[in-house]
Amino acid sequence: MVATGALTEESGSGRAPPAVGPGPLGRWTYGTGVALIGVQFAGLVVLSVFTFRRFTLGIDFGIFSQAWTLIGTGHLNPTSTLNGMPYLKSHFELIMWPLALLHLAVHSSYVLLFVQVVALVGTEIVVFTWVTSLLRQSTLSSPWLVAVSAGTVLLLLADPVVYSTVVEDFHFEAVATFFVVCAAFDLWSGRTRRMWVWVVLCLLCGDIGGLYVLGLGLSGVVVGGKRREGLGLLVVGLAWVGLISALGDNQGSDVTTGYAYLAGRSVLPSGVSGLWLLVLGVVAHPDRGWQIAESRFGTAGRYLLSGGGVGVLTPWGFGVPLVALGTSLLQYNGIFIGIPFQNVVVNPFVTFGSAWLVVWLAVRARTVAVTGLAVVIGVLAVVGGAVESAQRMPTALNANASAGFVPGPDAAALALTLSRTPADAQVVAPLPTVGRFSQRRFVYLLTDQPAGAAPPVPVSARTVVVVVDPTVTPSLLPPTVAAALVEQLEHAGARVIVSSPGVTSLLWHPPPGVTSFRLP
Question: In whole angstroms, what is the distance from residue 281 CA to residue 267 CA?
Fold first, then answer.
């Protein structure tokens, strides 16, 4: 890692740095960068609207949409019928309660997707402002200013994880990323009082927020002049994660089974005792985690490469990415390292770290060799990010539960179904499109498990709407089973309210005493 504390001007002087670089060229460069990010913002809004209107929203969006709607309508302790637990037990995301106040003004859960886009673009603006402030304090010449600014904007705009996150439902990782990046900028610039405001907001995003704060503390500890604040962040982040674990409110993170192998167990006890066994297991047998993580280093490296790669070797670029990627690498289920939104926090810190390293070298360039090294590192960082973007961007827009957007005719049939579904009805829908139907008290998955293995679908309302297998998605029900289900429901008194080549929807009033039904 690059020696810490050596870049005294660039690592934060304790005073609030200006938001733009020196001179007219600096102001022009900053304004151009923000304008380009603004164009991206417009594109991401269009993309999220398209995703929403095409009904390409799955179970994760459904969980958040249901909670947001129920809290916003006065059900202050909602239970998710999609994952079968109180919403708070999943990740302890307390920020949903103030966010639900938006329901008073806007009833559509699209607002969640808009908040996500604002958080992603807001993160980019903060990182770009952070880099520009770094350049302002370094007093580098205009060519350096333009080159580093342009490289930073390119790495931010080309990050494929941003686009994958927009089309992959809604998740608080993007919101927590914005808050922790704001906290990091304030820690760097000496605004420690305001930093703690951002820290609290990050913690309200749940267990993942606590991990991000812990990671920022790691960076603070190794930066000269920031060790006291860094130690405080470490303690706060660790305490928050420990508290959530002790309350058993991190069930969505799959800690008890996903990391149990590190302690030589199949299941960990919940709470502090489980965490303690986990720590003891890692210390006593580090080879267990290495064997799992080693095979995933290539995937982790791609997240680093999108931010220039070398930034992870710097004081400001290693802490949060280390925690984020480390927890994904060590999860027994490899899905966590492969899902982009889980690691959306990596690029902002690695991108800043890459810019920091180039500036660190440039301000010390006394020979052609050092200047050349700074140039080579900067060029390789940008080229690496561009290559990674070119390879991953074609699939980034399809990185969602549906493995592709719902075709227009199927989306129109789903929209018609939604318009014909009473507000108090229960809905049973396939996993990849269930999200749009989740602004109600009862919503369940139309499972893809065989009839003998699938649990019965609960009947919790007097009116039940069943949406059968849109063809857009990997077909969750074989055609014969789907047809048999429609026949079964019609025989039980249901009537078809929408029929199209890809979607069949039925409305059913179950007889008194019927509490569930099974797939045929």
Answer: 13
Cβ contacts of 451 within 8 Å, gap of 6 or more: 481, 518, 519, 520
Task: Tell the residue number behind the tokens 């789903």, with chain if given.
Answer: 414
Q: Per-residue DSSP letters for 444-485? A: EE---S-TTTSPPEE--SSSEEEEE--TTSS-SS-HHHHHHH
Q: What percent of the chain has pLDDT over 70?
A: 90
Cβ-contact 500, 409 below 8 angstroms: yes
The pTM assigned to this predicted structure is: 0.91
Contacts of 157 (CB under 8 A, 6+ apart): 36, 37, 40, 124
CA dihedral 408, 413, 419, 420 (to 10 degrees): 180
What are the boundaries of each domain within the chain? 23-396, 408-517
Residue 267 has pLDDT above 50, yes or no: yes
Residue 475 pLDDT level (bands cut at 50, 70, 90):
low
Pairwise CA distance, residues 178 & 171, whole Å: 13
What lies within 8 Å, CB to CB, of 97 at 6+ separation is 71, 76
Q: What's the distance, CA 446 to chain centroid?
A: 25
Burial class (CB in 10 A: 0-12, 13-18, 19+), 145: buried
Find the Cα–Cα–Cα–Cα dihedral 357, 165, 253, 276, rounded to 10°.
0
Residue 292 structure tokens: 């799992």
Residue-wise pLDDT tens digits, 282-303: 888 888 888 888 888 888 889 9
Over residues 92-112, the mean pLDDT reads: 96
On the CB side of 413, CA atoms within 13 Å amount to 23
Distances (CA, A) of 195 to 31, 187, 261, 311, 496: 25, 6, 37, 22, 56
Q: Which tokens is 181 given? A: 């990046």
At position 121, the amino acid (one-letter code) is: V
Burial class (CB in 10 A: 0-12, 13-18, 19+), 309: buried
The structure tokens listed for 471 are: 């063809």
Taking alpha carbons only, the member of 199, 131, 203 closest to residue 172 is 203
Model confidence band, residue 60 (pLDDT cutoffs 50, 70, 90): very high
Residue 356, pLDDT > 70, answer: yes
Predicted confidence (pLDDT) per residue in 383-441, tens digit: 999 999 988 888 877 665 456 788 899 999 999 999 999 999 999 998 888 999 999 99
Q: What are phi and psi of 154, to 5 degrees?
A: -65, -45
Residue 441 · residue 100 · CB < 8 Å: no
Whether the Cβ atoms of residue 166 and residue 120 lie closer than 8 Å to each other? yes
Q: Are 145 and 167 in contact (CB under 8 A)?
A: no
- 520 DSSP 8-state letter: -
Q: Per-residue pLDDT averaged across 82-107, rounded?
A: 95
Which of helix, strand or coil describes residue 209? Answer: helix
* Contact (Cβ atoms closer than 8 angstroms) between residue 470 and residue 98: no
DSSP assignments along 358-369, one per residue: HHHHHTT--SHH
Q: Are 406 and 414 in contact (CB under 8 A)?
A: yes
Write out the two tokens for 519.
């797939």
